Amino acid sequence: MRSLPEADPGVPDLRSPLRYLWWNARRQMPPLLAGIGFATLWWLVQALMPAVLGKGIEAVTAKDTRALLLWASILLGLGLLQAFTGIMRHRMAVYNWLAAAYRTVQLTSRQAARLGATLPKRLSTGEVVSVGNSDIAHIGSSMDILLRGIGSIVAVITVTVILISTSLPLGLLVLFGVPLMAVAVGPLLRPMHKRQRVQRELSGELSTRAADIVAGLRVLRGIGGEQVFAERYRGESQRVRHAGVRVAGIESVLEGAQIVLPGLLIAIVTGIGATFAVAGEIPTGQLVAFYLYAVFLIGPMRTFTEMADKITKGHVAAGRVIRILSVEPEMTGGTGSSEGGVLRDSYSGVTLQPGSLTAVAASSPDDAAAIADRLGRYAEGDVTFGAVELRTLPIDQVRSRILVADNGARLFNGRLRDELDVRGGADDDEVRSALHTACATDIVEALPEGLDAEVAEAGREFSGGQQQRLRLARALLSDPEVLILVEPTSAVDAHSEARIADRLAKARAGRTTMICTTSPLVLDRAEHVIYVEDGRVLAEGTHRQLLDTSPQYATTVTRGED
After folding, report:
1. Which of 149, 200, 210, 530 lies 20 to 30 Å from 183 when distance is taken between CA atoms?
2. For 227, how many CA atoms within 13 A lie in the half-sphere containing its CB?
3. What span, in angstroms and rounded, lies between the C-alpha atoms of 91 and 79?
4. Residues near 320 by beta carbon (within 8 Å), at least 6 away in sequence
5. Best CA proximity match to 325, nearest among 21, 3, 15, 9
6. Cβ neighbours for 418, distance < 8 A, ≥ 6 positions apart
7. pLDDT tens digits, one per residue of 432-490
8. Interatomic CA distance for residues 514 and 359, integer angstroms
């Protein structure tokens, strides 16, 4: 399946799930039409078999061997054609299912990368995860069912024409009976649609709750809150179960209708046909053909109700996908360019000189984090980069040139080397140098497979301090033009903190670096220290100068101790 273009003029109308399904169908129209063609031929072959079998029975009744061989040969040919078209229909159904499902994965993955930091602010984890867990399957099924659904419509029309040409009453009975049965299941679709939507939303909320509990399990055990959250999870899971039972109630009625309604049609058609045969109006072979046609109609009728069910589920799933695709990133960029230079936040007054190691100490950690977000273009602000405003630069250029690394960054599962060298361009010496600077060499040496060791989800096999040091090594390997570190040593011991501070200054020599911290060990190694209070720069200088000249700074970095 080919990759989706970055800017596609056929992007779906974000206001309508049905338009999204139609857009998906148009993107795979050739294989979809091929599948519909094979499915239609597959159904038509089955629709013609009762007529051929009836002719063969008439030949047996008339003891016409030549005619019997002829119709037997035709029946064999139809059987072989049915086998071929059935195989091709199934192959095209699987292809279309996969194409629609994984096109949705491509779209949502690209949107997640585009949203970046906006995604967790606007959408819950469970809502995003449920798209990959179940929604793509329903969207794929909605494409798959189109093949058999359209083919079954053609088959019913063919059978109706054959019956009308043979017996007008029976043909009219099928002509009006099939639409009536389709209408009979219509009232079930709206409540099923509503219940499925509720059940999906509750499942998404439960997934979010589970992710939060797993992520904070260590803290919960520390404060003894496991039982409380377990009870909450149990209560929410019961709500999901009840919602699932309500959906199953509607689906069971729909499944029952797939059996009962065609069964009634079979009984009526067979009864009337038997009456005509007893009266001598139709031969025995046609009676058998009528019965087989009535039995055959079970397949198309079940497909009709299955199509209604799967398209309804696909509609609900498409609505969730549209909800993700309709979110716009909080931060957007322009088309300008900058050769770099001084990075300045006008609101706070924080100014980063090119090639210097600057530390920002704030009376409130939130103020330092807000400054880092504005300088990294994760929040709106009047920021200049060299001679141009940061907001005028393309957002991907900002992300590649200015890296903000905080303690909210995650370690992902996979090979440790790939986790650290995310761009794949660093050699072994560069990796070892970054690990040495972050005091993380011992972490890798303790792993049996070293850099080839597999990292578990969120790096849960590492302690908080180890994760922090590995994240720092990853940030250093990225080697951005401007590196902004937010509390990079808050979870390590004082001895490691001092070594990191010394090595960091040497590793980033000549590169613009800002560290948000109140650690005296780190501040003492910085070339320039900026003290921020109430979001504004209050004092600047070296660490030792500020200790002598700014009582507020001294109080902040010494935690009020003499």
Report:
1. 200
2. 1
3. 18
4. 127, 130, 131, 135, 200, 204
5. 15
6. 424
7. 999 999 999 999 998 888 888 888 877 778 888 899 999 999 999 988 999 999 999 88
8. 5
